[in-house]
Amino acid sequence: MKGYKIGLGEIDNNGDLSFCYALIELEIPEDYPGLKCYSFESSNRSNVARVLKINKVDYTMGCLLEPIVKVTQEYLDSAYSLFDPNFCYRPGEIVYPDCFEEQPFMCVNGIHFFTDREQAIQYVMNDWVVGRLTNRALEKEVLRLMAVER
Description:
It is built from 2 helices and 10 strands, in the order E-E-E-E-E-E-E-E-E-E-H-H. By secondary structure, the protein is α+β, with helices and mostly antiparallel strands. It starts with a strand and ends with a helix. The mean pLDDT is 79.
């Protein structure tokens, strides 16, 4: 089964780091021993996933302040979870959450994903996600600059 999720990608422009949204394409290995997967109205949660590819997502505001989201053909080497900056996705790797809640609830630990690519893209347009990206990018950039200065 394929899955899609939005993460935070890092772009290195000759040493100048910037952040962007990333569309992470996953494969949920249905033959994986011990696979646990729960489905909800619009999204899913699993205890294992293989990262297939990561595309950069451009997000801009139109002249009427409507969000314009475009998945580009630019591939990224990695992307981070919007909820755990230590959780990294890399193409070709199998990822596991730090823990997995056995309850069939949505808002608990696990790898959250959508089976519909368009639903994952729509998730970017959620104002809460946009605010979280802005804050996370700023926080990460400040921390990175502090580390470089030391």
